[in-house]
Write a structure and sequence with these properties.
Blueprint: E1 6-9, E2 16-22, E3 27-32, E4 38-42, H1 56-67, E5 75-81, H2 91-106, H3 114-129, H4 136-143, E6 149-153, E7 158-162, E8 168-174, H5 184-200, H6 215-221, H7 227-252, H8 255-271, H9 280-288, E9 293-298, E10 306-312, H10 316-331, E11 336-340
Parallel strand pairs: 3-5
Antiparallel strand pairs: 1-6, 2-5, 3-4, 6-7, 8-10, 8-11, 9-10
Helix pairs in contact: 1-2, 1-3, 2-3, 2-4, 3-4, 5-7, 7-8, 9-10
């Protein structure tokens, strides 16, 4: 996404809930059923919390929306999430977007375009939390559609929906190893892409992102880039094409192409982009030998996390059992393997029945 390319995204039916009780003052308190700590802050004096740093995602969203002139009101909030933390499934973006949705609901429901809401949540993570993430995660959490995946154009911030064949199931294979994307590797990859763009712009004026470069153009000047930078850029440019090809393969149910494209994505992530952890390779080997698998690649920005697989529904139970047993036997890690459905983006929940 930070190269303004294309991404195949899907909001899944793992959720982050925020229950909010109105307050009469300008204070916000937040606590979680998942992690220790919590905190209170004043909307007129929003500061970082070093004791419970997870609350900075909430604080950052409040700070950015207030800077943009949106009226905010205080509340007491309790958060619960079924999204595994540090797994590459965008738990931070879910927290940001649910916070923005709650602030909007609590403050009279001011109007804001969904894409702008996603952009402001991204800004909160960039500027307040200090993670220079792209638009993919907050966009997906905001714009997700039930039963559909999104082919996201990260330059124009538009998407079209695509469907996964009815007899294919998306399955998350979580290695249960936390990723840490605020570390040096993520920023290093991003800066390497930017260095490649600056060099390629010497040959192709007007280039601002790797999105602007074709494979043919890149091949002409690959030798003019430092070797590591060239590998990073080649992966991104090839991956951009693979996303479009995968959308086509899913729409025509071309399972051979799905397998080829996802395998090439993983190989490129490992050999060119260098974001495959030691735990990911054995997971991919296990997944690709499991019953009913059509294709798989790692999810998110790498360095651990999850593998996401397309699996034939009639082999789902056998696939889950095989991956759990084989991966634990080979690594001693106990993975979580579970199917997910495409779900709608953030919004208020309505409850019926006795209070």
């Amino acid at each position: 996404d930070y190269n303004e390319g294309y991404v195949m995204a899907m909001a899944v039916n793992r959720n982050t809930w925020l229950a909010a009780l109105p307050r009469r003052d300008r204070k916000v308190t937040v606590h979680s059923l998942n992690v220790e700590g919590g905190g209170e802050f004043d909307l007129d004096d929003i500061r970082h919390d070093e004791v419970s740093p997870w609350t900075n995602y909430v604080r950052g969203v409040a700070s950015v929306f207030q800077e943009e002139g949106f009226a905010l009101r205080g509340f007491n909030g309790l958060i619960h999430s079924t999204i595994p933390f540090g797994s590459g499934l965008s738990s931070s973006a879910a927290l940001e977007v649910v916070t923005a949705t709650t602030l909007k609901s609590r403050s009279g429901g001011w109007e804001i375009a969904p894409v702008r809401l996603a952009l402001l949540c991204q800004r909160a993570e960039n500027r307040f939390v200090g993670m220079n993430c792209g638009i993919l995660d907050p966009y997906s959490s905001t714009m997700g559609q039930a039963g559909k995946s999104l082919l996201l154009d990260c330059r124009h911030l538009t998407h079209r929906t695509t469907s996964i064949p009815d007899d294919l199931q998306v399955v998350i294979c979580d290695m249960r190893l936390e990723r840490e994307l605020t570390g040096s590797e993520y920023g290093e990859r991003r800066s390497q892409c930017e260095a490649g763009v600056r060099r390629l712009a010497d040959f192709y004026p007007g280039v601002t992102h790797l999105r602007d470069i074709t494979l043919e153009e890149f091949a002409e000047h690959e030798v003019d880039l430092p070797e590591v930078v060239a590998r990073r850029c080649r992966f991104v440019i090839e991956e951009n094409h693979r996303v479009l090809d995968l959308a086509s393969a899913l729409s025509t149910d071309d399972r051979s192409a799905i397998r080829t494209l996802t395998e090439a994505s993983f190989t490129g992530a490992r050999d060119l982009y260098g974001i495959v952890s030691s735990a990911t390779e054995p997971m991919m080997e296990v997944v690709m030998s499991a019953p009913g698998v059509v294709g798989a690649r790692q999810a998110g920005a790498g360095f651990g996390g999850c593998v996401v697989a397309f699996v034939e529904r009639n082999s789902l139970a056998a696939f889950e059992e095989y991956v759990r047993t084989r991966y634990r036997g080979e690594t001693t890690l106990k993975p979580e393997v579970y199917p997910v459905q495409a779900a709608r983006g953030a919004g208020p929940l309505s409850f019926q029945g006795a209070s």
